[in-house]
Amino acid sequence: MKYSFKIKTLGVALMAVSILSSCTGDFDEINKDPNSLTEDQLDATLAGPAFASALYAGIHNGSYSSPSGIDDQGTWGIATGILSSTFIHYLNCGYGTERNAFVNGYEGRGWTRFYTVAAPALSNAFKASQGNAEATAVLKIWKVFMYNQMVDAYGPIPYTEAGNGKDKVPYDSVEFIYADFFKLLDEANATLTSTSATSVASLAPNDRVYAGSVDKWRIFGNSMRLRLALRISDKDPANAKTQAEAAVAAGVMQTNDQSAFFKASNITPNNLNMIVNSWGYVMTSSMESILVGYNDPRLAKWFAPIASGVYRGNPVGGLEDQFGTTEFSKFNNNVLGNGPNNTLSETKNIEIFMASENYLSRAEGALNGWNMGADAKTLYETGIRLSLAQWGITEAADVNAYIAGTSLPTLPNILTVYPTLDLQDIPVKLPVAWSASTADQRTQIAVQKYLAIFPESWEAWADLRRSDAKVIYPVLNTDNPDAGVGKSLMKRIIYTTNEYSSNKAAVEDGVSKLGGPDSGGTRLWWDTK
User: Fold this and answer.
1) Interior CA angle at 239 toward 215 and 161, to 5°?
2) Which of 27, 19, 269 minimizes the C-alpha distance to 121?
3) The three-state (H, E, C) secondary structure of 222-253, written as one string
4) pLDDT digits (tens, 9 = 90+) for 64-111
5) Of 10, 248, 259, 204, which Cα lies nearest the Cα of 117?
6) ω into 419 cis (within 30 of 0)
7) Cα→Cα distances 294→284, 401, 402, Å
8) pTM exceeding 0.85
9) Which tens digits make up the pLDDT trace of 377-397?
10) How many CB atoms lie within 10 A of CB 421?
């Protein structure tokens, strides 16, 4: 397990942060040899570069420009592309994971990168920020974001002692980690609310999300609190209500300029944009059914037609070469692909957390009887408006027509070529226009959140598991015989084989805290239905 948590020197981590810090002229230079630094030499000048590394690695992106031994954009392709993105049908390209299988150790790529780059970088940023209350508050918020994705993907994980340099690192339960999340967010909000500072100077030059803005990081933290409150709403409804109402009262994202994006560069490129087309990722039948059926104006922004006005999605879970040379809609180069002259990956910013999600979460909270500051219908429609605006769709007539739309999701185009495929039961059977039924309203919120979060699949996957809304097709075929898997939505990612060989006692304790077998069919603590 040494490779997972213990960087023998700070050389590798600080080489990473020095490269990240040099990707724009706005970043400070590091005037020390990173290979010779030790922990006692971490000071305030290294807080920002360490934070820069934690930000980029914390969203599972990598760069060929990183030093040897760090990683490259293949991490996104494996940790996100063929796992969470495929699980929820944001994309697919024929890998075995689309049939719910864990193959070739792919489940380990994201784990290894997180614990060898993101976690140590964040730990270094904390150490270098000692005594700086505002910087520490921002780091607490980012810690919650980073670890929330991991705990929601795997279940119990190394958390309290992660990045501490030990060879054997224990696992904490999901319940314990969530309790600590709320504690950290409480502390961060208190600090950032009471400070007179408007910017965190030590982090600002290296902060490629909010440039050190105290107010925007405070709002981001409150938005995380709302997200987590909904996550536990089935398991602990009383606490969920308390946390959600506190988040909204303190202030969550309300406008698109408060949304969180990582600003891409030539050294920190948008991995999705670099590889989505080159790896063969295409539109799925689930996405096609919804977007085409709704006449969704985001369709043309995201995907390219195979012919004039004709889109075709690939059903997730097809057998190898089942569809031969059949053409499927690719990602639109102008928005998600490589872009003109291969520069889009350097300029298309990476989605982290969108303001539209908050409105849709608040809409669901209002249905729960929580005080969300407005009625569910208003919040639902505002969330849709913000998502459309995010993608450049602002013409009032078009936006209003979509929100009032009564058309339904449609059968996928692939059925014209393969009419016997098991795709006749369209998952979403409701229009966009607000329903009179509370149960239907919950499904409508889930569908629109699924679209609004795109392409950030880690959160979309967690939200589909939590809501149990029927939004996507079952996979056509399954290669996973484990109980609870089959053709349904995967419940979690299994632990890495290296953990069993080098940290056996800890990972076995993690499995006991999981409450079920180490398989893709075991539900997490908050996933009760």
Assistant:
1) 70
2) 19
3) HHHHHHHHHHCCCCCHHHHHHHHHHHHHHCCC
4) 776 544 678 888 999 999 999 999 999 998 888 899 999 888 888 899
5) 10
6) no
7) 16, 10, 8
8) yes
9) 999 999 999 999 999 999 999
10) 18
